[in-house]
Design goal:
Helix content: under 10%
Shape: elongated
Number of helices: 0
Distance between the termini: 25 Å
Largest sheet: 4 strands, antiparallel
Radius of gyration: 15 Å
Number of strands: 10
CATH architecture: Sandwich
Strand content: 25-35%
């Protein structure tokens, strides 16, 4: 997964609200292959998997969690801040046996 965000509006933080340089890995895909963030350009790259021979996770699973702090309140007439999933040389998404699975973001609300 490659996600870009507006650094002027959002700051990547951990679950406690401290500045972060990585995503919080989920538990369903325990082999983290890549977990890094470029907080200057506003990009997070995360990839995880699971060893073969074990049953595939079923149902809803959390691949990773990202938390953001809003740095500047948006004016009432502004559009929402976008989080852009990037595709291109490295496809973004979840795959099982070579087939893409739906990727969904979930808001945990404000803290």
């Amino acid at each position: 997964m490659l996600l870009r965000y507006a650094t002027g509006r959002l700051q990547l933080v951990d679950a406690e609200g401290n500045p972060a340089a990585t995503a919080e890995p989920g538990t369903d895909l325990p082999m983290v292959l890549r977990n890094q963030a470029d907080v200057l350009s506003g990009a997070v790259s995360f990839s995880a998997g699971r060893l073969t021979g074990r049953g595939a996770p079923a149902g809803r699973l959390v691949v990773a969690r990202l938390y953001f702090r809003v740095l500047q309140p948006l004016p009432s007439n502004a559009l929402p801040v976008a989080l852009d999933y990037v595709s291109g040389d490295a496809p973004t998404g979840a795959f099982y046996r070579g087939r893409p699975l739906a990727l969904q973001e979930e808001s945990l609300g404000q803290r």
